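Anyone? Bumping this.
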Amino acid sequence: MGESSAAGTLYLVATPIGNLGDLTARAVEVLRAVDLIAAEDTRHAKILLARYEIPTPVESFYDAVERAKTPELLRRLAGGESVALVSDAGTPGVADPGGHLIPQAIAAGISVVAIPGPCAAIAALTVSGLPMERFVFEGYLPMKPGPRRRRLETLKGEPRTIVCYETPHRLMKSLAAIQEVLGDVPMSVARELTKQFEEVRRGTVAEHLAHFEQHPPRGEFVLVFHSTIT
Ligand code: SAM
């Protein structure tokens, strides 16, 4: 289907992952220019918008309402309004809302434009010290032990660097599962990137387990690791 010139544009706007200074100049321009900002959490978005004095109307667009709200957004886009999609942090759609809306907008012939910027996975990969030529993004490992183990089994022999998101309360279980399934593999743990307590620890899974046993995990984490012991 061809794109309609009368239709608006859906902008996928990356926002800071901690440091509010990381919003790009182009993101500011687009957020000011669009008719509507669809935000994962409106209160969270308004803090960023206030900092940059952006008066654009904001509507909520989080996982649980994405499917229900998509037809209305598509109708507005088709009617000529432009919409910016933002998540609470980083790049929309990357472990965040957008996975339903984006393909639907493309299928409807709407122009979809990326306004690139922060992404925790890419930031963590770049500081990991592990090979970056080829990598796989695994999102969050499953929460339950059985599915988590089965997911890790699929990563055995994976030649590319692996990147996973992690929460503080699941970190220890995930590290233990990685050690059990893959062994004491090389790993970089990035915590609170761009924030006050930013920390990047490089070592092996066993070293990270020992460290976080002494220092209970706090904040947001990205794990970057290999599937084999080197
Ligand atoms: N869309 C976001 C992106 O582009 O990075 C990711 C959203 S996902 C819901 C949130 C996860 O990203 C967190 O649980 C953590 O794993 C990671 N993350 C986000 N901000 C981070 C930060 N400042 N430092 C480390 N990890 C972060």
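Late reply, but here is one note on the structure posted above: The chain has two domains: 9-115, 120-225.
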